[in-house]
Amino acid sequence: MPTFQVLSCFAYSRENNRLHSVLQNGEVLLFNCDTNPCRAVEVWIPQTTDEEVLQIVQLTLAYEKEEVMVTDTVILGGMRNGQICLLEAEQCVMIKNVQAHVGTITCMEGATDIGMTGFKLLETNRKLATGGDDLFIKIWEIGVKANELFDSIFIQLLIKIPCVGMPEHICMYENTISVSTSDDSDKGKLHMYRLDGQESKEIQITTLQHTQDEDHTEHITAIDKCPLLGLFATASEDGYIKIWNRHNQLIREMGFGEPMHGLCFANIRGDILIGFQNHI
């Protein structure tokens, strides 16, 4: 790998202890994490510019095969040509790529669901959210159809949501989606939507509002979720971390005096890791 190559997107598999990362040139670099430091073991190079991988997501799919429930962890890529492709799976196949957007896929996220008790996150995924430079957010149902020959992944569009700018960050759990765009005219604004009627297949979109003065004043650099607490968190170049509930209400903000370039919830209790300068 060239020195100082920038890694722009990641997917880590705990089961296989492997890390998939996307390079800025559209290649996918695979690391073996059995050692410290980890070792780069493979580079997947696209054949054409259109096939460059710009986004990557890891999902765990559950399906019934021969009257037994099985799971498979799959790696999906979002390409420059707007297609979703299967990069890696142990059991499943995808017959052909899915044309998700008219143009580049700019963000991808697997939706997290909560178990029936409300106290545990499900380890499998049933929905996928994507954003593209066609200015749409799209929500997909994803699953597997098993037969004697192969276990085939299907991706079916549920609904699409128009955006005021190009989606840059997207985060989803249950039926709630948080989005930020890269447009200067929409700088610092968090958009939140709720999907109702998913069981009846007649999905309705509710836009959840907050007052303009609660938004960040600079671009949002990261969004993450803590589903069991019903929270989203945003980081911004304005030096603030903001915490929102699932109704798009601002409940806390923290100022650090430095541009924030990364953020994630570290656990289900809501502890937060932040990235600024070269620090965590």
Automatic annotation (TrEMBL):
Transmembrane portions of the chain: none
Protein's name in the database: Uncharacterized protein
Species whose genome carries this gene: Mytilus galloprovincialis (Mediterranean mussel)
InterPro entries xrefs: WD40/YVTN_repeat-like_dom_sf, WD40_repeat_dom_sf, WD40_rpt
Gene3D superfamilies noted in UniProt: YVTN repeat-like/Quinoprotein amine dehydrogenase
Ranges occupied by WD repeats: 213-245
Alphabetic keyword roster: WD repeat
Lineage: Eukaryota, Metazoa, Spiralia, Lophotrochozoa, Mollusca
PROSITE patterns (alphabetical): WD_REPEATS_2
One Pfam family, short name: WD40
Superkingdom, taxonomy of origin: Eukaryota
